[in-house]
Amino acid sequence: MPKIKTHKATAKRFKVTAGGKLMRTHIGKSHLRRRKAKRNKRTFDRRVEYENFERTKKIKQLAPSLDQK
User: Which structural domain range is residue 20 located in?
Assistant: First the structure.
């Protein structure tokens, strides 16, 4: 039986909380920050709960190591 490999791009974009919620980063965080308002830049640094329930199962399949941390 081959070892299950983690999809590295998915593992970098998502984190799982202790309660099992999937958290994602904001989009537009790193590109053209100079012309964005300071208030918006602060909100980019926070993580947001991922609310697409249909895709949550697929993301956890792509990165099984997310649940083990």
Answer: 8-68
User: How far is it, in rounded angstroms, from Cα 24 to Cα 15?
Assistant: 7
Q: State the Cα–Cα distance between residues 45 and 68, nearest whole angstrom.
A: 24
Q: What is the CATH number of the domain that holds 38?
A: 4.10.410.60
pLDDT in tens, 19-54: 888 898 888 787 888 888 988 888 888 888 888 888
Task: Let me know if residue 15 belongs to a domain.
Answer: yes
**Total domain count for the chain?**
1
Alpha-carbon gap, residue 53 to 41, rounded angstroms: 27
Query: Looking at residue 29, what is its pLDDT?
Result: 80
pLDDT band at 68 (very low <50, low <70, confident <90, very high): low
Residue type (1 letter), 51: E
